[in-house]
Amino acid sequence: MAWLLGNPLASSPPQPPRQVWMPARGEGSGCVGKGKRGAEGLEAMKQRDRSPPRNKPWKKLKSMVHWSPFVVSFNKRYPWVQLAGHAGNFKAGDYGRILKKLCPREQQCLERLMQDSLRPHVPAYFGLSQRDGECYNQMEDLLAGFETPSIMDCKMGVRTYLEEELEQARQRPRLRRDMYEKMVAVEPGAPTPEEHAQRAVLKPRYMQWREALSSSATLGFRIEGIKKADGTCSTNFKTTRLPEQVVQALGDFVDGDRTILTNYLGCLKDLRAALEQSEFFHTHEVVGSSLLFVHDRTGLAKVWMIDFGKTVPLARGQTLTHRLPWVEGNREDGYLWGLDNLITIFSTMEQD
Q1: Does 56 lie in the same domain as 21?
Q2: What are φ and ψ of residue 9, in 5° steps?
Q3: Radius of gyration of the chain (CA)
Q4: Nearby residues of 73 by Cβ (< 8 Å), 6 or more positions away
């Protein structure tokens, strides 16, 4: 899932971060835990929520940015842009932070990443926060410091489903009419005659078709969405699978600006070097994670890894190359293969 927040007003005075309870490693979800410390942490957050409200430093707002299919105002505090995912999973946090609905798996990943060489390449993590009876992971707003940014979400790897999801779907097969309808909306000839007759498909069939349709299968990544500074937006990349199609989309994203291309290329190379040295990366199956690209008219350009809800630790002693072809059972995800291809494309564009 990709997420973005607009910046608070630059004139706002800096505020100290609100303290939140952060569980010790191994405790899992503190907000839903039943142990003594989990209860104490939850009660501490409730006490903070009862304290008198402070004056909010952000009184004025930028105009709403519309991103189909979601337009979310968060009580008019500041605008939200979400390129892919579920709008209900997010809330605006305090002091320019964002709150993402608790996923214990993602929480554990973020805690570990704060101790890993990948820390500069992921959102800073500030522990847990509770709002309206829900528990959230509290993270850095990655748009802070950008002026009217352009944004792109790239889903990394050759697949966006875990091996365990595929196996579970096979063990409990169920015909899905909704997935059939999504399939025919994009590629009417994709279903078999039997699937057309049933007007439904099995989930494993749909998942594998979806990846083969895009550049996930051919390049190890796919563009999920682009929002440009001029307000133009697109998520119509489901059938973008050839290198020349990707080059065209990326060229439009950066408006042919060589400085931005060069800066992005440097970010990607730095990320690859960090990934190759990361203990976390080599010992996890990284599926459904995205790279978030952000730049503005000043030439500032940055790339972050985001979305770790499907990032799963391997068995002790097992590692992945993230480059070998995926064969069911080997858990390879193709992340580095996709990053290699992305770097090659940016390098070619920079030289042209």
Answers
A1: yes
A2: -60, 140
A3: 21
A4: 64, 79, 80
Residues 116 and 161 in one domain: no
In this structure, are 154 and 12 located in the same domain? no
pLDDT at 96: 77
Dihedral sign computed on CA atoms, order 125, 270, 346, 343: negative
The verdict on 135 and 157 lying in the same domain is: no
Q: What is the pLDDT of residue 87?
A: 56
Residue whose C-alpha is closest to residue 23's, from 50, 44, 3: 44
Same domain, 162 and 107: no
The overall longest dimension of the chain from CA atoms, in Å, is: 64
Around 348, how many Cα atoms within 13 Å sit in the side-chain half-sphere? 13
Q: How far apart are CA 155 and CA 343, in angstroms?
A: 15
Q: Which two tokens stand for residue 276?
A: 């190759």
Query: Can you read off the two tokens belonging to residue 152?
Result: 């792109």
Contact 97, 141 (CB under 8 A): yes
CATH code at position 281 = 3.30.470.160
Q: What pLDDT is stored for residue 264 in this prediction?
A: 98
CB atoms within 10 A of CB 207: 18
What single DSSP character describes residue 147? S
User: Could you state, in chain order, the average pLDDT of each consecutive group of 10 residues for the chain (352 residues)?
Assistant: 38 38 37 41 44 36 29 33 58 83 96 98 95 92 89 95 88 94 95 96 90 94 94 89 95 96 98 98 97 95 96 96 96 98 97 88
Do 338 and 234 have their domain in common?
Answer: yes
In a domain, 207, yes or no: no
pTM over 0.85: no
CB 222 within 8 A of CB 342: no
Q: Which domain holds residue 107?
A: 2-140
Per-position DSSP letters for 59-109, written without gaps between them = -S-PPP--BTTB---TTTTS-EEEEES-GGGEEE-STTEEEEE--HHHHHH
Q: Which pLDDT score, from 0 to 100, does residue 260 have?
A: 97
Cβ atoms of residues 150 and 231 within 8 Å: no
227 and 286 belong to one structural domain: yes
On whether residue 192 sits in a domain, the answer given is: no
Q: Residue 154 is encoded by which pair of tokens?
A: 């790239």
Q: Both 121 and 161 in a single domain?
A: no
